Amino acid sequence: MKRILALPLVLLATVTVSARPGADVVRTVYFSAVDAKGVHVTDLTAADLTVKEGGKDRAIEAVKPATMPMQLSILVDDGGTGGFQGAVSQLIQATFGRAEYAIRMLSPQAIKMVDFTQDGDELREVLRRMGPRGRIQVDTEQIIAGVTDAAKELQQRRARRASIIALTAAGEKTQSDMSDEAMDALKSSGASLSVIYVTGVELGRVLGDGPRHSGGIIEQVTGNSALAPAVAKVADNLRYQYVLTYTVPDGVKLNERLSLSTSRKGVKLIAPSRLPDQ
């Protein structure tokens, strides 16, 4: 495997389902946990957690630190300024060796710059092309389409530990006919959506509600100097995930509503609240 060298430096929870023939259905959820100071909690056990699906208690089979490789789909909406070049580099540096990456840039449509790869040379070339490119016409519906495309791609790949990370300086059209399709695609993919956005732009249903439903996070930044801490939070949420498996009794219909809670005081769980339909 090639490694990234000398990259310039300046998002989370997913769900999968498997069935045992003639037995219970096993569902897998990726989530993270932080304490009151925002420090990641790394010693949770099944005894600390409660899972409800559709309001019904479910039996937890296991909880452990997640080690499966991640599939990260990155959306870059910088208006052509190159302002997120360092942030994307930082994100890759923080997760490299644990993930493969697909990267799209809005111009104004979301154009795929690289398919899922772990190749350092390919990633360096994309980062080079992510610098200042001249002013690009802004279309705040296109990031919604970008989320839809990324989610559908992850579903087609049957990605098991998938996340979409959107970095936007333009925001999202708040009233869009495309929002329903994007939210449905995000749920069906089981991927988490995390968003880093510049102060003053609008977040609508997809970028605003998508992270809460899918188990991602939202970070607001006031300028380039605030990007590094925001990216570090997204990266840490990915790096310190748990993988939890629980069972749904044979013959019981699956429900999309998930509630994951903990008895540990002062601990906040970052987990999805909506599951794929199957």
Question: Overview of this structure, please?
Answer:
It is a single chain. The strands form two sheets. Strands 1, 2, 3, 4, 11, 12 and 13 form a seven-stranded antiparallel β-sheet that branches. The protein has a six-stranded mixed β-sheet with strand order 7-6-5-8-9-10, sandwiched between helices. The chain has six helices and 13 strands. By secondary structure, the chain is an alpha/beta fold. The chain folds into two domains: 84 residues; 170 residues, von Willebrand factor, type A domain (Rossmann fold, 3-Layer(aba) Sandwich). The longest helix is centred in the middle third of the chain and has 15 residues. 25% of the residues lie in helices and 31% in strands. It is globular. β9, α5 and β10 form a beta-alpha-beta unit.
